[in-house]
Amino acid sequence: MKIIVTDNYEELSDKAAEVMLAVVKADPSAVLGLATGTTPLGLYARLVRDRAENGTSYARVRTANLDEYKGLPKTHEQSYAYFMKKNLFDGLGIAPGQTNIEDGTAADEAAECARYDAVLETLPRDIQLLGLGSNGHIAFNEPGTPFGSGTHVVELAESTVKDNARLFADIAEVPRKAFTMGIRQIMQARRILILASGANKADAVYKMVCGPVTEAVPASVLQLHPCCTLIADKAAAAKL
Ligand code: F6R
């Protein structure tokens, strides 16, 4: 794993934007695996600003997101579909037909997982962006998820519900289940870029990089990926 430690979140976001822009410039029809959460917001803002200033085209890019809360329609402000539209797709001119994400409202969970598995088969990702859960999760693959997993529905860990409650009016509103891309599919991406910011990620960063490769720490599987870059700020890298 290549590791880049930055002084702060702003620098982390600058470096992450450099990596993503290099991928899109090298191949304007690149397939981008994307993440939600707080960590990529600085990166997304930089990509939007770059397009406004430099006209980088995303007309042929296609995207696949990691996960979606079960039960939330794409019009719900806390849905990940809404998050992506608001924070990235509108600003980059990426039309809905170029994007892919699980349908949180799908009644038949197995059919929705099979549909998304099939979508991912046809969309080999040139780069997969990841955030890191404070418990070591990647996407919503919580500790204990088999490394061979495909798209599935998860019961969110209590710590994840608590971590994400800040974005909802009340913790009771945080969905308890989500659809997520599996670890096998994350590992299929040609390149992985994982971002970690803040002291509350320091334990997870340490275990991901220095600990044993174990399903108890899902992100530790990234030690096995041939082309994975971690960009962490000083606070998140403090235990390395
Ligand atoms: C988001 C996702 C999650 C987050 C992780 C970190 O699509 O899959 O794994 O990346 O929970 O979230 P933040 O960035 O909010 O700390």
Description:
The chain has about 240 residues and is an alpha/beta fold. The protein has a single domain (about 1-230), classed as Rossmann fold (3-Layer(aba) Sandwich), CATH 3.40.50.1360. It is built from 7 helices and 9 strands; from the N terminus they run βαβαββααββαβαβαβ. The strands form 2 sheets. Strands 1-9-8-5-2-3 form a 6-stranded parallel sheet, covered by helices on one side. It has a 3-stranded antiparallel sheet with strand order 4-7-6, covered by helices on one side. Helix 2 (about 40-55) links the parallel strand 2 (about 30-35) and strand 3. The protein is globular and about 40 Å long. The mean pLDDT is about 95. The protein binds fructose -6-phosphate. Fructose -6-phosphate (F6R) binds near residues 36 and 38.
Task: Record the SSE blueprint.
Layout: E1 2-6, H1 9-26, E2 31-34, H2 41-54, E3 62-65, E4 67-69, H3 80-92, H4 109-121, E5 127-130, E6 152-155, H5 158-164, E7 177-180, H6 183-187, E8 192-196, H7 202-210, E9 228-233
The structure holds fructose -6-phosphate.
Fructose -6-phosphate (F6R) binds at residues 35-39, 66-67, 131-133, 137-140.
What is the CATH top level name? Alpha Beta
Widest beta sheet: strand line-up:
1-9-8-5-2-3
Bound molecules: fructose -6-phosphate
Mean pLDDT across every amino acid position:
97
Name the descriptors.
Rossmann fold; binds fructose -6-phosphate; 9 strands; six-stranded parallel beta sheet; globular; alpha/beta; three-stranded antiparallel beta sheet; 7 helices; 240 residues
